[in-house]
Amino acid sequence: MTDPSGYLAAHIQERLAGRAHELGIRVDVRGEVIYLHGEVVNEERRREVEEAARGAAEGRPIRNEVSVVPVREPDGEERLS
Amino acid sequence: MIRVAAVGDLHVGPEVAGTYRDRLGALPDQADVLLVAGDLTRHGTVEEGRVAAAELRDLGLPVVAVLGNHDYHSDAQEEIAGVLRDAGITVLEGTGTVLDCQGTRLGVAGGKGFGGGFAGRCASDFGEPEMKAFVGHTKEFAARLGGALLELDADVRIALTHYSPVEDTLAGEPPEIFPFLGSYLMAEAIDAAGVALAVHGHAHMGTEKGETPGGVRVRNVALPVIKQAYALYRLDGVEDAGLGAGDLAGTAGGPRNAR
Prior knowledge:
The complex is a heterodimer of chains A (81) and B (259).
Chain A: H1 4-20, E1 26-30, E2 33-40, H2 43-54, E3 62-68, E4 77-80
Chain B: E1 2-7, H1 27-30, E2 33-37, H2 46-56, E3 63-66, H3 77-86, E4 90-91, E5 95-101, E6 104-111, E7 117-118, E8 121-122, H4 129-151, E9 156-161, H5 184-192, E10 197-200, E11 209-211, E12 217-220, H6 223-226, E13 231-235, H7 245-248
Parallel strand pairs in B: 1-2, 2-3, 3-4, 6-9, 9-10, 10-12
Antiparallel strand pairs in B: 1-13, 5-6, 7-8, 11-12
Helix pairs in contact in B: 2-3, 4-5
């Protein structure tokens, strides 16, 4: 039997690509709840991801577990010899 | 010795203008060149291309870039490349460039690249025209990459792409999407050219370090992978007379790089 939540997750991912232009966000549908996982560079993009997902979420609750990872200074070099 | 700074997947837009550049002040003291492995923009608009150009212009060291799939999204890739070139950035697409790094000729060849998959689990140039076009795009690029690498009149060669030439650096991504993240055809071209280092981006959930079947070090420098403004790689020993890049990378069987 097909699990329709798989289609929903795929549609949300498609919308994340089309609207938020984020291709690396994982979408899990567990019961009624939609979970978003992944990393973005700032809070605004985290919100954008959630908004884009909401548009395809069919009214279900969203748990936005996307984390913000700011760019930091480099901390050393790798020697390739 | 050549010091290479590398990063990919900046995905800049007007809302983050200036924030990436703020991290680049120390670059001229740390590296001889900055390599940018594609996806400078999010939506591939010319406006975003201008933001990317402003982040990377006049940094005090040469900047060599390739475009990524995001930079193609609005069909403005040519304009974006033009905006970057106007800012003094070298943009490669199946082409190469040679830089003088303190007397050592560093050759960089590259371009966007494409998918198709890896040995044993890859798409074939067969069947529908859509499938042939998909695989054909990669084949055509890999051939141009290989030619551009071999044509470099350089002491050391580096390959710069957006898509990955190997599976190693995709570890962490769902294996089912590997065929959309890179192609072994690029690794084959890299191995045939005696390359010291291959740099790519694209796989945000991947792994930094890998190696081609021929022993060339591959580094995935996508910003979400390296989690710093750029990664720094020091290629030691290149000032030794007659030492080829193949020796540097510990490769066996590839042609020597020194001419």
